[in-house]
Each structure stands twice: as C-alpha cells, then as structure tokens.
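Entry — protein

Goal — fold tokens:
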Amino acid sequence: MIVSKRILDFYLNSSIHVALSCYALVRITFHVFHIQYDEPMALFVFFGTIVGYNFVKYDALVRVKKNPIGIQLKIIAVLSFISLILVGYYFFHLKRITQIVSVGIFAITALYTLPFFPNRKNARNWAGVKIYIVALCWVGATLVLPLINAEIPFTTDFFIKCIQRFILVFVLILVFEILDLANDDPHLQTVPQTIGVKKTKLLGFLLLVPFWFLEVFITTFNYHDAVINLIMVVMLMLFIAFANPNRSKYYTSFWVESVPIFWWLMVVFL
C-alpha cells in the first residue's frame, strides 16, 4: 500500500497525470475536427505540459526558497529534463506558424511563473487573473495549436470550441480553488475567496449549461458526441457538488483532472 501511494504521488507530483489530461484534450480536438492523428503535435503538448507544470510548481521551491532537493524532486528534475529534450525534438516537427504560436504560449507560462516586471510579483500571484491565464494556456495548447498545425481554417466551429474548452478548464479550476480555499493567500482573490463556496458552485453549474448547449450550434453536430458531452457535464456537476476544502488532495489532483481523460475514453469506446 505504501509503495502504491508513493508511485501515485510521484505520478501526480511529476505532472504526468495533468499532461495525460492535456493529451486527451488534443485527441478530442483531433476527433471533433476530423484531424488524422498527429503524433508530433500530441506528444509536443504532452511533454510540454510536464515541463511547463513542473517549472511552475518547483521553480519557487528550488530557486527562491532554496530548499534541499529530495530524491523524488531529483527524479522529477530528470524527468523534466528528458521531457524538455523531447519537446525540442517534436517542436522541430511542427509547422513554422505552430512553432511561433507555441513560443507565445510558453511566454505566457513564463510570465505566470517569473517576475518580469520591476516591483511586481509573477502573474501567478496577480489578484484574480490566475484562473484566466491557465484556462487560456490550455485552450491554446490543446485546441489552437492542433488546428494551426493541421492548417484548419478558423471557422465558427473553432470559436465555439474555444469557448467550450475555456469554460471546461475554468470550471475544473473552480473545483481546485474550492479545495485550496484554506491554503490560498487571501490577496489572490480566487473565485471562492471573492464570492464564497456556494456561489462558486452555482457559477460552475451555470457555466456548464452553455458549455453543453453550444454543441448544438457546431456544423459537425452529432448525437453521439452530444450524449457523451452530457455525461461529462453530469460528472463535472457531481465533482462540483461534493467539493469542499476538507477533501483529500487526490479529489482534484487525480479525479477532477481525470475528467478530460474519461471524456476521451468515452469518445473512443462508446
């Protein structure tokens, strides 16, 4: 049991799980826009997520706080370095415009982590903006990049899917913010800190309504995907309903972040 827990903790702490969620969203993008599987694109996002998330999570721990580096953190550092090499490898297999846009997304991630402006904290600590930056990065990496690389034109369907994807990630982060309410610095002004847990849950429920109904307006609408999306909406509503600051970290870091993976698996097997 202890060994299993350590393996699970490493899997989560090394950002492999969240990277798999991003990979799943890329595969869903391929499915929705009928894009043939693009391995360099999908794996670029997968390994890029590992690098980006580990950079965000451990930069302050190592660079600023200068804490002693434990064995697990050393292994995560090696994994991140290998992932960085693979990101570079797949980067050069992408089209030039995709490379340019991906650099822009990386710049936003760097802005989120590092204090570029004098006398200002990094964007991660700017009051009220964290949730929007993260959601925009996910939309860019899992939806915009695959379409650009496949040279798919930006039609109405694209913009609808961007809104849906933004709402999905926004709602997922709301659950995280509810669980982190007791630990988040009050100056961050997260949604639960600003409007309270009950209103945050209500906001999550309300956002999922347009998320599902927007599906009706895409030109490739089909009942199969609509039903799967409805199942995912119900799943998310349950996660929101049972979220509270006393929940285990695994509630969000494993189960909630598994929602895109479950979505992709339903698309594949149902």
Summary: The first helix runs from residue 2 to 13. DSSP finds twelve helices and no strands in the chain. Residues 167 and 207 are 7 Å apart (CA to CA).
